[in-house]
Design goal:
- The N and C termini lie far apart (60 Å).
- With 251 residues, the chain is of the alpha/beta class.
- The chain has an 8-stranded mixed beta sheet with strand order 3-2-1-4-5-6-7-8, sandwiched between helices.
- It has helices at 19-30, 42-54, 69-83, 107-133, 156-176, 195-200, 212-222, and strands spanning 10-14, 34-39, 58-63, 88-91, 139-143, 183-188, 233-235, 240-242.
- The chain has one domain (2-242): Rossmann fold (3-Layer(aba) Sandwich), CATH 3.40.50.
- The radius of gyration is 17 Å and the shape is globular.
- The relative contact order is 0.13.
- Bound molecules: NADP nicotinamide-adenine-dinucleotide phosphate.
- NADP nicotinamide-adenine-dinucleotide phosphate binds at residues 15, 17-21, 39-41, 44, 65-67, 92-95, 116, 143, 145, 189, 191-192, 194-197.
- NADP nicotinamide-adenine-dinucleotide phosphate (NAP) is lined by residues 15, 17-21, 39-41, 44, 65-67, 92-95, 116, 143, 145, 189, 191-192, 194-197.
Length: 251
């Protein structure tokens, strides 16, 4: 079994127990990254670890709930003490939340969507920005959704959380554009065959969809040291880097 060395790039992937995060974690590990795999479901993380080891890679499993902010801070300290840096951060974990009119959304479920989709990603930036800055080429990718741009009826909590995520990541990219080697981008995966997609579109035949494994090689390219774009959205359905735009009021 391979173990990590100082030459490995260190990559942290959230939501690595299944779906898109799992495929990204495996792809990064196969390409030689030491993967720090975060999610709540220990069994899913252990299955990922088996597959990474079978491919000759290495991983550290971190079963935790991302709504536990002090746990994110502790993880930052542990990674700092062990490696002194982080090379790749993939903020992928997310929840769909309720699909219902805004006025009918249970406040507890609203809070959960915001805590996972926004607050946890901010806490990750807060804890890991100093470590990304220690990397010769720190790369951060956060997973958004086309829903952020559609204002579609009944998708309120999810769409609001992803729109906020986009503004946060673009702001983070701007803060680093000229002051560090950190580059931060958004990823729009489009419709992929996962549990979340099945929850959102229960009537859909999942076999018509692309898979997280189809997407993963493109994420490997996004986090490569030679990839220097920042503050953009990589749109997997069109294979294009998009400049996010918001209509501005007349000055
Ligand atoms: P998924 O299969 O439901 O996986 C979600 C992942 O997030 C799981 O690994 C889950 O792990 C983790 N997670 C959720 N809540 C967590 C918490 N409180 N603490 C720690 N981990 C948590 O969904 P997916 O489709 O792969 O989605 C991944 C990302 O892609 C999400 O941000 C989603 O919004 C985005 N996206 C997906 C699609 C699509 O078509 N699939 C389209 C656009 C955007 P545990 O349950 O083990 O904690």
């Amino acid at each position: 079994m391979a173990t990590e060395t100082m030459d490995n790039r260190i990559a942290l992937v959230t939501g690595a127990s299944r779906g898109i995060g799992r495929a990204i974690a495996l792809e990064l590990a196969k390409a030689g990254h030491h993967v720090i795999a975060v999610a709540r479901t220990q069994g899913g993380l252990e299955e990922l670890d088996d597959e990474i080891q079978a491919a000759g890679g290495s991983a550290t499993l971190v079963p935790m709930d991302l709504t536990d902010s002090p746990a994110i801070d502790r993880l930052g300290l542990t990674v700092y003490e062990r490696y002194g840096r982080l090379d790749v951060l993939v903020g992928n974990a997310g929840v769909l939340g309720p699909l219902s009119p805004l006025g009918h959304v249970d406040p507890k479920r609203w809070d959960e969507v915001m805590r996972v989709n926004i607050d946890a990603n901010w806490r990750l930036i807060r804890s890991f920005d100093p470590l990304l800055r220690q990397s010769p080429a720190g790369r951060a990718v956060f997973v958004t959704s086309g829903a952020a741009h559609k204002c579609r009826a009944y998708w309120g909590p999810y769409a609001v959380s992803k729109a906020a995520l986009e503004v946060m990541v673009r702001t983070y990219a701007a803060e680093n554009a000229t002051t560090s080697n950190v580059r931060a981008n958004l990823l729009n995966p489009g419709a992929l065959r996962t549990r979340m997609r099945a929850q959102a579109m229960p009537g859909e035949d999942p076999m018509i969809l692309k898979t997280p494994e189809d997407l993963a090689p493109f994420v490997l390219e996004m986090v490569a040291p030679e990839q220097s774009r920042t503050g953009l959205i990589y749109d997997f359905p069109t294979d294009e880097w998009l400049v996010p735009q918001m209509p501005l009021p007349e000055e």
